[in-house]
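Regression test attached.
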Amino acid sequence: MTTIQDVAKQAGVGAATVSRVLSGKGYVKQETRERVTRAIEALNYTPNEMARNLFHGKSGIVAVIIPELSHPFFSELVNAFEVSLCEVGYQTMVCNTFYEKNYELRYLEMLRRQRVDGIIFGAHTSLASEQYQSLQRPVVGLDRKLAETVPYVAADHEEGGRLAAEELIRSGCRNVVQFGEVEDSVITPSSQRHFVFRKVVEAHGITCASYPKQPNYSAYNTYQESAARLFEEHPDVDGIFGTDLYAAACLQYALAHGIRVPEDVKIVAYDGTYITKFLHPEMTTICQPIRQLANEAVRMITEMINVNEIKENKVILPISIRRGNTTT
Amino acid sequence: MTTIQDVAKQAGVGAATVSRVLSGKGYVKQETRERVTRAIEALNYTPNEMARNLFHGKSGIVAVIIPELSHPFFSELVNAFEVSLCEVGYQTMVCNTFYEKNYELRYLEMLRRQRVDGIIFGAHTSLASEQYQSLQRPVVGLDRKLAETVPYVAADHEEGGRLAAEELIRSGCRNVVQFGEVEDSVITPSSQRHFVFRKVVEAHGITCASYPKQPNYSAYNTYQESAARLFEEHPDVDGIFGTDLYAAACLQYALAHGIRVPEDVKIVAYDGTYITKFLHPEMTTICQPIRQLANEAVRMITEMINVNEIKENKVILPISIRRGNTTT
């Protein structure tokens, strides 16, 4: 079988260069890149990790179960998963559950019959964890604690809630509103941010109202409706905390109704997906470490696939704030 | 094997209700939905189409090859693919090529070794079509004409370019700029819109400048840089045409620099993804029929998988304009 050395030799470069070209990591001159690509084509080379998977009778497929791919957070996340899995020779299967338990169930049945090597679970539904154990496949939770025995990775959402609260306190808010708990059956690590947010602002004598999130991502008008309802029911609101799309909808409503941001209302978004970078004023946002979440989950799932066990049962990643102009 | 009738009987509903629950199509009372879900769990039922696939020795997997999942157009599109494929019992494998020919090559090698039943190809790279034929798998092009023998589906981009041009003409623009051809080796059906746009505006004595698109989706600052460059090099611009993210970046730049939209500059976006709905003023946009694109491509690929041939060699879908407040 063709090796990476054969390709390097044919292209007249080092093996490291070939692997940089294959992984897309690190700089490679366009001209060199093309020479390597031609060598790969000429020798019909297959990357090693994949060859290894096939050699060990693995399918080389990892399934990623999420609520909805068209949501900016999950599209950036699955994008990162695909890159990270590809680098270790795995292909990514996407499964949207749309908050429907029976969709999740259907996928589990599909996965039971597919030769999927592992499952990364980030949906908002929650079948009994036995359902997952019955698959007898490695499972890693993404922001989901399925069971004591199922390891998971999540951002430090408590810190995220604290950072958001402190930003609105620093900006002098007195009456804040947050878009809080998801209306579904699961309490996720990410829900924690809302409890912390409330605790911190109330400790500063700030009133805090909470709206539930609508678990229906792609019906985008629900975000605009929620924003309108917030401003109608809380004319005195001077601080808002919600995920990127709620924050964007509130900013849009404010600007459309002569409410100045940040003078009259401060807004802090949560997730930090690209949409927050395209708004004016630019959105202050708590940024989830999307790439690292994907890399860690992939490291964990491949470890479980390869050695069938894993040391840590959870990995919590640091979270940060990116200041825009929706706070002062 | 358990049939849909067994599930219906156990749940005390009709088979149609069970299939509504499974497909997520049509209304089903929550209480009924739960009863059906419990029956499915109790009987360990597997949807028919999937059983059929497995029975016929198919993998039940279709690969979707695109440039980048985190781009709003492709995230909404792959989301629609996943739904549409799931309804006919297929699972979706995502492959990001990131405009890298060697990534595409790597995927083809992976797919050659995977039991993938079909491939939907929407990347912007372009290996020789022989590479695809050598896979001996059904392939459907998405906005890509790989070869005479490879059928494809696309939106009516010529009409899209015309609609955008007429909107800016109607709004009284005299100096327009468009973000035009992608800097890659492929001429895609979607490139046509730029030629038509130029032809139509110039026929009305309007000057039209073109900037190339940067084929680097997720480096979001390139959009802002392109917008800044446009306004610096064309201080007299009064009409802009570009994909959603270019349009959003131009709107953001204008608002940040005291340029009024639509009074001083009119903007028409292309694609119509959700981001255009969260801006203020709301963006006028040409909307691609994303769901229909996915449904048609899935219909074509499943037809090719099942009967190994297909009548039409291309399907062009109608495109429409959604007027916001960035034009007059």
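Expected vs. actual: identical. Chain A touches chain B through 66 residues (CB under 8 Å).
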